[in-house]
Every structure is written in C-alpha cells, then in structure tokens.
Amino acid sequence: MLAELYDSVGETAYSLAMRILDQPEEATLVVASAFSSIQEISDGDITKCSVQLLALVRQQAISRRHADRLREHQGSSSKRTMIRIPDAAHGSYPPVLSTVLQTRLRDALAELRPDERTAIELIYFEGLNQDEVADRLDSTAEIARLRVTKGMFKLRDTIMQVDR
Fold it and tell me: What pTM value is reported for the model?
C-alpha cells in the first residue's frame, strides 16, 4: 500500500514540501514523516490517502518553516515563484486530480490577477495570516482578505464549470 501511495503522489508531495521549505534535506524529512504518519491512518484507498498525505506534508512543512523563522529571528527573504501544477502521472495509478481538473486549475490560476495569486500562495504555501500577507504586499489586511476571497471564488468558479 505504501509503495503504491509513493508511486502515485511521492513526487508531488516532495515538490510541495520544496515549494514551502526551499531546502531539499528538510523537504525529504517532511515527506518521510508524512508517509510514516499516513501509514497509520491508511484504509486502503489510494486517492483518499493521497489527499491526506498532501495535506499533512503542507501542514508539517509550514510548521517547520515557522519554527525555523522563530529560531532565526528574521523575516523570509527568499525569492517567490509561481507554483507549477505538475502534469498528470503517467504511471498505473490515478493522479490526485483528473486531467480535466488539472487543466481547469491551471487555467483558473492563469486567469487570476497577480496580486490575487500571490496572496493565495502566501496563505497556502507559507501559512501567513491576513496581516502578514498585507505586510508582505504592502497593503491593508482588508485588501489582502479581499484579494484572497476574490481569487478563491474565481478558482472555484473556473474549476467547477460544467462541461458544455
């Protein structure tokens, strides 16, 4: 079961941890820890476990990043890049998102204004709150909240469109 899960989502999990931590050794530790944890809650459903694993990787990576920040007593100065949504896996296991949903997600992200996308990325990948996003984007917390809300609605609406 664990080998199947790794084949299905291992690369995506590592990419997510790297995006958040930007340190290969730390990303490897987070992914290994998440796989160890997921083995305990596994019920045999690869898709369900994939979603749980990615959520756990994100949570652990953000926690580790915040802990590192506290130890260093300095703000993040790492260069930010736009997230790349990986292409569907070409293995025998289904990807976490169907090809149609992956395409819709890429299209939806491309349609977002840069300030909306950046605000969403700061909250999702760095675990920042609205005040921290506002500081990073040199705006108010209310504007940061509106950017995230508007962007998330756009993502939802684009992804959930019914095929015509």
Answer: 0.63
